[in-house]
Amino acid sequence: MDLGIETYFEAQFVGRKDELRDLQAAWNKKQRMFGIFGMRSVGTSRLAKEFLASVSGQYDELVYVNLKKTSDLVAMYVNICAQLTVSVQSHPNDVKSWESMLFCAVSTRQTQYVFFFDNGEYFIDNEAENREPLHKLCVALLKQNNIKVILTSTTKFELESLRRIYYVCELQPLKPTETSELLRAESPGVDYGEYLYPIVELSEGLPLLILMITSELRGDGGMLTPKDMAQLLAEYRLKVLSREFYPGKDRVADVYRLFINRLSPVLQRRFLVLDYIPGSFTAEEARSLLDYPTVAVVKDRVLVPKLRRHFITYDPSNRRFNIQGILRECLKTFFALRHIPEIRKRFCQTFTEVMTSISRRYTSQEYASALADFAFEQPNLQKLLLEIQYTTQDTYTFFIRMATESTGFIEQYLTGNSEDFYSQCHRAADRYGKETDKAVVDIAVGSLYTYVKAKFKEGHTKYSAALSILKDAEKSLQLATVHQRIGSNLMLQERNEDAITHLKKSLAISLESGKPFELIALQALTSMGCTLTKLGRFEDAEKYHFVSLKRRRKMQGENHPDVGTTLNNIGIMYDQKGDSRLALKYFKEGLEIMNKSKAPDLSRVALLTNVANAYLDVGTLDVALNALVEAKEILSKQRFPQLYLIAYLNDTRGKLYFQQGNMDKAGEMFEKAAWGREDVASGKTNHVESLVHLMKVAVKKGDTSQCIKTGKSVLSYSDDLIKQRPQTNILTECYNCLAKVYEAMGDHAKVRDTLTKIKTELLRLEHLYTCDCNEGQVVKIRQQLTDIECKQKAMPHTLDKVTNTKTVI
């Protein structure tokens, strides 16, 4: 049905089923006024046309008025009268005369009319002088029983007096499924493949953009492929969809530039300032950036007017506003933002408050709400970190505050921008700050190197620089922090005794300094527990871990990721102690809390791998495999995955293959793990552990030369290993592998010598476990000693004769 209604392209009508159904239901309920509102080119006119077609049997005549093409009220009335075949003898000068002439003709007919006013924003914007006359006309029309009215507009038309018979449809962009349908319908034969999703995203559900995209894909014999289009849209969307050979009404840039030009100069300026926020924003954030006195005022003067004109969107469930992407592009392309330094300062001030609030709540029982807020604020906070490059004396304090209060949060969630941010902070501290500011930045950079990049020596260097500044100052949160960070860093380097020295200093300051020090006290308690576990001092480690657990639950709640991490550390302690049952229990509890709290994916990798190791120890390979698959999937999606986590995962996968009897895959995984661990900390316990695992594979494969070569590397680290972790059994496992290959080679002298070394190492471990009252491990060690003695007795007695003979020769 051709109604002569102006719509962009006569394309297939796709989607809008819900909107069309609701409009039809309102029609059947005797609603008489229908307002269809949405942003420019979202499809309001086309929906109105389809709606009218669907109810065409229920009215007799349509009067269509395109207000975009009507210069004034007189022209509008002339148009209406012409369609109604009302004879106009002379043009009246007043509106009432036009209305009288019009209604005289309509009221005497039995015809059922629909008056359709299209592009209503040209008459009803606040600044338009025709708004009130149009309002009165609609009211007058609806007093006639044989008339219904449809109005489309980018500006919402409020008719409070007609609310009982007025149905309002707020038209949103097409849904992704509808966008995909329209793309395919308008470009038959085009195989979008993997580029469908990015093209759908970049079209933003706006029919004009979708139809321009399909026009480009159809043009020139299909020279542009979906891959080409996805790349062009990502980099030059506005230009590609606004080529000069298209009519002006179809060029995307012209359509939306003119749309923005309809705003008053004051609202345009406010719109530009709001665009400085890259993501969605709250009313309070808008108030702060626009420097209004209250939220109520900014809503009344800026947000509500823009909402009614469909320049911004509002999500009532999250109470956040946003600007459509294509409008942002037009703002940046065609409109200049003034007073940028002042706006930048307000932006930094606004979102520094947001950042510190989120990071503070992230370490408390408000973790879930902090994470939910971050999901919305992420683009804004990423831009905030980049603003450091424009630092002035006015904005410097904001960045130092973030470096002081939000380091942990930045490390975990904004890693991609953090290194440059901290280096810029350091340079800014040279220009504007104090020595203590430099120390704060050095602590932050040290944490970045230690916990994100696993560059422990570089991290220690930065921490040491901070300590050299802070050591002569009074006890402070920064001093407690740097001692804790150094202790944690040294623990990761297996310098455990040195680590304890610093951790004790951190605890001495933080435990007696009140609530502001509580978080750093918890971190020091946790680090102390982990360090004591490595040293085999399990009874002391247990005390620190459970004190940390109790205090964390009180401060952070039962379901905080840090509570899950603490349970994981307790599991490691019991695993090292030899209690695999308790270890698995705490690993599972920790993982459950991590999952409940929706902890960052990366923080779950170590726990999943620990769970897998625990199940491998009891032979439950299928459950171990599931945990490893999940951990691997998480790591594969990370932009900055920690090397030590990758290495740990590879080592555990190697154990799984080993138990399955697949020595080739086991060797491949152990080799990758050894390389990764060597890069992180050469010669340390984890690196040597992977080397011993490679020795076990070599034994199984009968590769005696490789086993002996690797064994020599392991034994070269023996003194350092015992110092790092006195209760390690890595050397015993290494000697066992060597004994097996020497036996396979028939070198009985080396077998006997190696068994003696095993016995010596077991006696050392027996003494340590006895002093630690670890009866379970003592029993295991004594059983191994018995086995060694039996092997020694069973050795051939000809060994000495052979040796003597060789000596004589």
TrEMBL record:
Keyword Repeat belongs to the record: yes
Q: Which Pfam families match?
A: TPR_12, TPR_8
Q: Superkingdom of this entry's organism? A: Eukaryota
Protein's UniProt keywords contain Disulfide bond: no
TPR repeat windows: 564-597
Signal peptide range:
none
Q: Which residues form a coiled coil?
A: none
Q: Which UniProt keywords apply?
A: Repeat, TPR repeat
Name the record gives this protein: Uncharacterized protein
GO molecular-function terms, A-Z: ADP binding
Output the lineage of the source organism.
Eukaryota, Metazoa, Spiralia, Lophotrochozoa, Mollusca
